[in-house]
Amino acid sequence: MSTAAINKCPIPDYLNEELIRETLRKEFNSEDIVVEEFDVSPATSAGDNYMSDVFRIPVKYRLSPTEQKSEHISFVVKCLPDTGSRGPVIDELNAFHKEAQMFTQVIPKLSKIAGDEFFAAKCFHTTEAPNRMLIFHDLKSLGYTMANRHAGLDFDHCAAIMKKIGKFHAASMAYARENMDVMKKYFNFNMFNPDVDVRSDCINVVFEKGLGTLISIIEESWHDFDPAILEKLKKLHPVYVKKLEACLTQKFEDGFKVLNHGDLWCNNMLFKYDPTSNKLQDVVFVDYQISYYSSPGIDINYALSNCPNLETRARVDELIGIYYQSLSETLGSINYPRIPTMADVQYEIRRMEFFSIVSVVSILPITMMEKTDTMVVNFESMVDEKQAEQSRKIQYNGKKYQAIVRPLLKQFNDRHLLDV
């Protein structure tokens, strides 16, 4: 397998000693911090981040000029630029302010509610000057690493994800009861901002044109594919984005709501393993920039569409059971007044199941893309029509992708999700 072209990101000059010193000052509430050494390098490879540029900064410092002992810490700095194609989209999604609120205010409280559960890296500092940045504790330095997204995740990894998100959702239910104003102010939408009159074309390029390309690829090279399903996809195409918006923005008073992560695919989770046995110990999530207070069916459908490998997809019901056990046990431990039933969870999954189609058509192909020497995978290539078309052809022709998606499209058809 060839390696992808690396989208090299220049090191910004604002990732400097003053920023590091300010971060440490804030953490230790001290003006005496001495930064001895630091190094800045890209923290991710091409295709691992889209909306942001991420850098790793290992730092050697002393707590004061008279302190002899040096300390070490590693930061990860997430920069959300205001230029290029990404800037307007970040603004439209309110991504920076959402994520800053999540990491500095919400997640620490959720962790406490759930018995100090580790939901995310500690955020040391956020700033909008000279650029939008969030500065985190480096999860790699704590033993966390990214799994191989191209193969899909096995049952144990998916079970860990569902257990963790069950705890996260449960804690958010308790938090929301006392902080509904926060939910309404920051987390009232996912991708479709109700306060934006003229939206960027990004969603149409990524979603509608993605389905169009899939239809073309099926016609050209997916031999023996059911023509009835192909015809339904063609009829769905013109209303695809409208149906997505209707799914994600639906208002409801029945059922139950949680604070969703909003973007639970393999790139937004890191895993920790026992150093001796290599047994999976924990999972933690990153990139809480489109979190959304709504049905838990958003996170459940999204994760179960994008994360499992082919073998694990036959055990989806078990994974839903693990989610429910985690949700109900956590709610029970905090004496939540009404614990949803498994039937309630199943209802929420059905409420948001159209989101599964979008995940399979638009996100799963990125997850499973078989890399090439010529394709630079980044946000610009996703929203540039010519580059996006080129990458989708590679994605939709992937053998692993087809092995998973052919039966999924049949399932979607059987459940009438493709009907217009």
Describe the structure.
The chain is α+β, with helices and mostly antiparallel strands. It is built from 15 helices and eleven strands. The strands form three sheets. Strands 1, 2, 3, 4, 5 and 6 form a six-stranded antiparallel β-sheet that branches. It has a three-stranded antiparallel β-sheet with strand order 7-9-10, covered by helices on one side. The protein has a two-stranded antiparallel sheet with strand order 8-11. Helix 4 (155-178) packs antiparallel against helix 9 and helix 4 runs parallel beside helix 10 (316-333).
Helix content: 40-55%
Q: What is the ordering of alpha helices and beta strands?
A: HEEEEHHEEEHHHHHEEEEHHHHHHH
Secondary structure tally, helices? 15
| First and last CA, distance | 40 Å
Computed over alpha carbons, the radius of gyration is 22 Å
Low-confidence parts:
1-7
Mean pLDDT: 91
| SSE class | alpha+beta
Strand portion = 5-15%
